[in-house]
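Entry 14. Structure prediction run on the chain below.
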Amino acid sequence: MPGTSRKGATNSENGASGPAGRSNGPRRARSRATTNGPGKVVVVDPLPLFRAGAVAALTAGGVPVVGEAMHLGKGVELARAERASVLLLGGASVEEVTFAVRAVPSCAVVVLLSQPSRAELVELLGTGVAGFALRSLTADELVATVAAAAQGRSPAGGRAVEPVFVPLLVGLAQPDAPPDANGGPVLTLKEREILAQLARGASNKAIAEALFVTTATVKTHLAHIYAKVGARSRHEALTQAFAMGILH
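Output returned:
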């Protein structure tokens, strides 16, 4: 059986196991991941070098990697067998992501993207994915994203209740333009700023601190945003925001 600690072994696609290794990664990332309890991770990517790099970065950050695979089918098998908390998926199509989300509902599926278009982001949000990040993210960002995705799972262990992103992936479209410049719903500048923070995975408290408002004010703004874009949750609000071009 593969180990679940930093010194444990990871499953490869052919079933062989080898030492996960332990490196002298950033101490800050290791401490944060360990404190937050990132859970067990399975890494799936068709590129061996990238896969090895992701495994090394997560292991150095204190995140237990219990399996890795080149193909999604094997990755799903490993995630089920090891009861993984997160399935890190790179180089996958929207169809493959959809399959992964449905095949392993107990996992938070995090997708790594190269240069996603707005249409691709909208499609991915519609799959129920836990989150996505650029493949060019740093080791610290990878550890933080995986840990946040694991923490964002519902109490029953189902799919993530809040999508997770890294800051460089999203931004406001034409932040200096009038709120309805793109023909969408009239959002105030503050509401648009809150949407951008939301897309970066920030909690209500973090948003309040970043924008120098109270948590109650953030909740009020979120309620207004939901009503204006026709959403009932953060996930739906972000999907609509990408589709309408408010976020890119």
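The mean pLDDT is 75.
Filed with the rest of this week's runs.
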